[in-house]
TrEMBL record:
Main location: membrane
Topological relation to the membrane, as annotated: Multi-pass membrane protein
Stated family: Belongs to the binding-protein-dependent transport system permease family.
Ranges annotated as spanning the membrane: 19-41, 73-93, 105-126, 132-154, 175-198, 231-253
One Pfam family in the UniProt entry: BPD_transp_1
UniProt-listed PANTHER family: AMINO ACID ABC TRANSPORTER PERMEASE, MEMBRANE COMPONENT OF AMINO ACID ABC TRANSPORTER
UniProt name for this protein: ABC-type amino acid transporter, permease component
A biological process from GO: amino acid transport
Subcellular localization: Cell membrane
One term under GO cellular component: ATP-binding cassette (ABC) transporter complex
Amino acid sequence: MTTTALYDVPGPQARRRHLIYGVAATAVILGLLAWFVYLLFDTHQFTAQKWDPFTYKGIQELLLRGLGNTLKAFAFAAVLSLALGGVLATARLSEHRPVRWIATLLVEFFRAMPVLVMIFFVFVALKVQPLPALVTGLTLYNGSVLAEVFRTGVNSVERGQREAAYSLGMHKTQVMTFVLVPQALRAMLPTIISQLVVALKDTSLGFLITYEEFLHAGKLIASNLDYGLPFIPVVMIISPIYIGMCMILSWLAHWAARRQRRSPKTEAVEVADAEPGTLLPGAGAHHP
């Protein structure tokens, strides 16, 4: 049996060289980590004054309240973004040209606008509370992005599926609801969840408009002189929690992708061979 390789198999000298490179890279990384830890100790980032505040009940409640506000803003923004994306995608797929033009203009405008600009505009110009301003900005941006995801997903379904549904007498709403969307959803799900990760991270922009979310709570603690300005400890507490929440959503995206690949719509079923002389259904029927 002949094995074809797409690359040259490294010889003894190449393997030795790769080993040296790997050891050197590991040593450099460990050295940088040690230097970073040394800087933290040298700047007194691990003193009791900077870490004791996190043992106080009031500080813990402040962080938990901020985390709850972050999750609340994300929940509102996620639901509204999905709804807005569905509406804009439906409009972009409309057979009426003016509807398509208006939807395209809205999608391209909100996708091009920075999220922070939209949040500030709603907060300052419309004079609304921080939570509605944050949710509105996140919804307009992420909803327009999801609209393109939905439209692309529906258009990716084979044209024959659409034509077969129309040939059965189904109208456009039925074709979209029962044929195109269910098939497109499986392909779109990982991208949808990835966009929700973006929405979750962008909730941190709320601290710029005084919304009391997780980052805003951390800023209040880090800027307190009584605690020795514990900026680094706050970052070391808040960052892993943000990363953990985003990793959970990212894990859902990867899980959805794996489930899509290994869960086919139908499975093969073994069928026994027909006995000699067995007629197929209807084979013995007499037609006038």
